Fold this protein.
Amino acid sequence: MNVYAPGKKFNHLTIIRCVGVAPNRNRRWEVQCDCGVIFEVAGGHLGSGHTKSCGCIKMAKPFIERLPAIMNKILPMPNGCWLWTGCTNNHGYGTVSVGNQSQYVHILMWEHFNGPVPEGLELDHLCRTPACCNPYPGHMEPVTHQVNCLRGNHPCFVRRREGFCKRGHEMTEENTARVSTRPNIRICKECARIRDARRRHGGS
């Protein structure tokens, strides 16, 4: 008896017909998912259960249903950080799939325990640990993007906090100018003089 035959059902997929043989001698089948979608799949994937549907049943569970599994990937640290041990992005922030979309774990945790992040604000890691997802005071705080940047570990912002511009000039009152249209922005006069001199000399 042929295991793979038209009308045979594997999980949510029903075989329609054979559409060819792959170089590895594995037959490819045209199948129809229970949702109505028709596509091709390797016979081996059907038999092993690797492919169970067109993808419609892979919709991620709501966050509240995934919370126990997410908590299992959190490692409490002596300093109070809840260290995420799952997937992270290039910047070290924890990510998880919810509703077929990749989302930040620290934001999900904050919103679950504290409610939505206020409009116009973003979460700043006060503990300076991107993988931390502790939503309680001392580890995360909703702030503006500007404040979040100024608190960051980028050398440019570290120098700014120490009272220097990004090129190392001290931002004294005498060496500081403000933009009339953006009074919160400070400009280093020494950097401005250097730029003007370069323009006068053709950028050399």
Notes: DSSP finds six helices and twelve strands in the chain.
